[in-house]
Amino acid sequence: MDIRPLSPDFAVAPQITAEDVAALAEQGFTHVICNRPAFESAPEEGPDAIKAAVEAAGLGWTDNPLVMAEMSMDHIEAQKVAQKIPGKVLAYCASGTRSAMLWALSKAGEMETDDIMAALEQAGYPLGGLRGQIEMLAQR
């Protein structure tokens, strides 16, 4: 499992499995956000299978599937709400990129843009093209 922290209480990862959930709980995660649409996954990796394992382990679950061409403010707002749940949160998708992008966009106006960009870079997501969108959202 490739967990990449973006802040002390939030991390992203590529696709997780039901078998990974126990390790997430051991590492102190209390909530999981799924940003991968069900149609992208095999049934054993789909949101229903992961959700069942997450809930069986006593962790919270948010389903916020994102198809990049359909990203909206609703996705960003849903991510923002889920990220504010007390405890340590992990968001996942196929590669972690969508989850990292949603985190970055949801932090616009809450964090300095340079700090957001640095966190992305440090986690292995060089998403320099987001800078303009983050700055635009910060002005809202």
Q: Summarize this, please?
A:
The chain is an alpha/beta fold and 140 residues long.
Description:
By secondary structure, the chain is an alpha/beta fold. The chain is 39% helix and 16% strand. The protein has six helices and five strands. The chain has helices spanning 21-26, 47-56, 73-83, 97-106, 113-122, 131-138; strands at residues 4-7, 10-13, 29-34, 60-63, 88-92. It has a five-stranded mixed sheet with strand order 1-2-5-3-4, sandwiched between helices. The N and C termini lie far apart (36 Å). The mean pLDDT is 92.
Give the CA-CA distance, first to last residue: 36 Å
SS class:
alpha/beta
Annotation field: number of helices: 6
Radius of gyration: 14 Å
Average pLDDT reading: 92
Task: Please provide the ordered H/E string of secondary-structure elements.
Answer: EEHEHEHEHHH
Strand order of the largest sheet: 1-2-5-3-4
Q: Can you tell me the residue ranges where pLDDT is under 50 for at least 5 consecutive residues?
A: none
Shape: globular
Q: What portion of residues belong to β-strands?
A: 15-25%
| Overall helicity | 25-40%
**Number of extended strands:** 5
- Main beta sheet strand tally, sense and closure: 5 strands, mixed
